[in-house]
Amino acid sequence: ATSDISYIRFHGRNKENWFKKGITTAERFKYLYSQEELLGWLPDIEKVARRSRKTFIMFNNCYQDYAIRNASQLALMMRDLEHYLRRRETQLRSP
């Protein structure tokens, strides 16, 4: 992070259509991240968030409802991780 505000943008990984001419924007960004891919991003997101005052995450894989689905998945993962870390911290402080 190089600023007190960070921005992470997920475009998808549709290599097949990325440079293809004559297709729609939605077709270019037609990619649904798997749960494993999103879980893999959590450590990097945490690092960026720790260095920033504010962190924004945007999904731009705008085919059908892919962005909404992936954003919801990631939000749940982050919430669950936060609950786990708080619980763990409380347990570590308890005698």
From TrEMBL:
Pfam families attached to this UniProt entry: DUF72
Protein name: DUF72 domain-containing protein
SUPFAM superfamilies xrefs: TM1631-like (SSF117396)
Domain of life: Bacteria
